[in-house]
Structures
1.
Amino acid sequence: MTKNGDVWHLDRGVVCLKAGKDKAIRRRHPWIFSGAIARVEGDPGSGDVVVVKDAFGAVLGRGCFSPSSQIRVRMLSFDASSVDDDWVRSRIERALRLRRALVLDLRHLQQTTSARLLFGESDGLPGVIVDLYGDTAVLQCQSAGAERLRDIVVSTIIEMTKVRRMYERSDADIRTLEGLPSRKGVLHGPGLEGLVSMKERGLDFDVDVDAGHKTGFYLDQRDSRQQLRDVARGRRVLNCFCYTGGFTVAALAGGARSVVSVDSSQPALELGQHNALKNGFADETHEWLRGDCFEVLRGLHDDGERFDAVVLDPPKFAAKAEHRDRAARAYKDLMIRGLRLLDDDGLLFTFSCSGAVDRAFFRLMAGQAAFEAGRPCRVIAELGHAKCHPVAVSFPEGEYLKGLLLAV
Ligand code: SAH
């Protein structure tokens, strides 16, 4: 039940697709764009469940209606059976099983108490994000449908994880495209008393779930941080766009000789330094610089500085497909600057979290950067989402993060 007493899963309308527009849905792609719709029967409101039919009237499944978004319907089910609370619970149960098996195995020596528990479309619950940080789960509803599923998701997560606190960070920009207001605050348990503590592979991090980026931490980079940790011994590391020090702490844990961390955000740098100290790393091994990474990289080069590993994990440069080429230049420029700072046998960890830049294109950029920097490289590994960010094979858009480990 929703707060106003409505049952969320009753059918409130029928969305009939244009001829030929059913193919993607039959392949279980979860989005229906407004242009694919022939007509809407009934008067479904924001987030309401609608039945989706092809041009001949055959039922394809059910989804949630988003009247303000170009993505007019986000699919829940892909057959004629109805959806209800138990249906949502089974999706959540399946998502939690995966995280428990692959990430949150607390018997494992390298303890991890943080993970993305629900990753929207890829876990079959479009727009619903739930991240776990120790005793606190953080919910982010990114679509009108997610908003409608909120109550059943919250009660199920609390029941199945026994989490002490649940917090909401439904304040992402993407909500404005869905006509939804920004909302945050405690949903369950005690109020926040400052930062929330969690572990990632035995390392301690404090997370600002109230004001940090996304829900507070970049959980998607867990496996790449481990890759850096594995090869960090004895290296001088430069961590660009360091945020709260995820890669920095991983490098120090791997035995890096020194780490220089750069970000434009003072609160992020302060929390990064706090996290390094929390893990017992001596002050003189880590330096924190506030500045624009493009300029800092140039300045370090002009000063003749050299590193044995450089991390480039910038924010999203291309929010839309039409920004792709401009973004590509920025990624390439960063990589050129990073490569020029590397000593022989140095390693570059380079990333893009722009959905509009796919793997093949990113690799092309890396190739051009290597050529222009005069630093021929070899690809050591393709990098990407940590295992708690699965990507449904029918939903390639879910793979926003891609990276490369290059050796010069
Ligand atoms: N690597 C981090 C996540 C990086 S998020 C981790 O693993 O946790 C991107 C970061 O880039 C943010 O902290 C943001 O403050 C910073 N940022 C954005 N533009 C920047 C710029 N031009 N120069 C330096 N930092 C920038």
2.
Amino acid sequence: MKKIALITGISGQDGSYLSELLLAQGYEVHGIIRRNSLPENQDSRIKDLDVITHYGDLLDAASINRIVNEVQPDEVYNLAAQSHVRISFDMPSFTIQTNALGVLNMLEACRSLKKRVKFYQASSSEMFGNSIDEDGYQRKTTPMNPTSPYGCAKVMAYNLCKHYRKAYDMHVCNGILFNHESPRRGSNFVTNKIVKGAVEIKKGKRKTLALGNLDASRDWGHSKDYVKAMHLITNHESPSDWTVATGESRTIRDMCEITFKVLDMDYRDYITIDSRYLRPHELNFLKGDSSEIRNVLGWKPEYTFDSMVGEMVNHWMEII
Ligand code: GDD
């Protein structure tokens, strides 16, 4: 019998890579998508995949209950979210509802199932805010002091998942994933914005690229490696919480320097600063300790930072 997976947020970067991974392993893959006036915007990353999609919304509990009951999943990957931290300052209420109460709706829908479903929650390094352990890393025991409505909602969802695991003996896991990128990343996130902008400059399509804070530092991995971690986490015998990171941190300025260098340019000639891209409260530094998932589950990223940037540059060089 095929295993059945249900992915919320299936049309996103991670949802599409996870679908590919699960299909290759013989799963029947279902996903929830929201109605959009341009349907092309909904399925551009998954249109060639043999997945079954259902219309629903994390905030529409009736739709979620119906889908979960119809699909009878063995594994649920809850990746759907308002995932842009900067935008969460503009839409705090929507972000909190979707990223916290939406998770509650998913947990309740799964609790009502007769079968024991494995539940993965997309938790985030944004939950740590500016807390750093003495050794310079963040890990699941690091205090959570979120610096955005997005981070606050993710902390609530994280705690709800732990609570449901304990209170109802459910197989609920949190993956605390640090930033992860790819050519499929939305181009309003900083890595793909930089790569796309640099290629446009290289090809004479634009003269400058406006960014916000260049001094923030992030631990960037590749989404393809991180969806493998999601699958390992979900299928480990005992449900738990795991930190997934590369353990390397680079500033936005480093990202600019490396990307423009690959294209034989000096970023200082092209980058401008625009206060529109600054955040009311910034998370300054992320560097994750993923030794537990490496040691216990054998997870190891295949991409390096350079191979990831190279893949993203090649992608935009072909498209533009
Ligand atoms: N988006 C964006 N645009 N960010 C900019 C810009 C810009 O023009 N200029 C500088 N930055 C800085 C931001 O201030 C932030 O410090 C950093 O670049 C990364 O921003 P994003 O790429 O938007 O990602 P994020 O770190 O806020 O959030 C991502 O990672 C989280 C995990 O830590 C998202 O994927 C979240 O959904 C995820 O949970």
